[in-house]
Amino acid sequence: EGDLGIRIADKTVRWQEGEPIFFDDCYDHEVWNKTNESRVILLFDLWHPELVPDEIVAIQAMFDEAKSKGWLKK
Question: What is the pLDDT of residues 52-67, one digit of tens each?
Fold first, then answer.
């Protein structure tokens, strides 16, 4: 009930309790919860299946560097 949802690129989806939403977060996205209730999410990060091992290592190194500089929280 109320105004809570997610926008992914130009598509807006309303949260439905018990219904999963899957999306690629490389697209511009935002979420909101303008209710008095808590919104709980379960988030998974998955590697794109076309990445090669060297690309995965480079991405991990980039995130490690950002964490070490305090740009990202652990």
Answer: 999 999 999 999 999 9
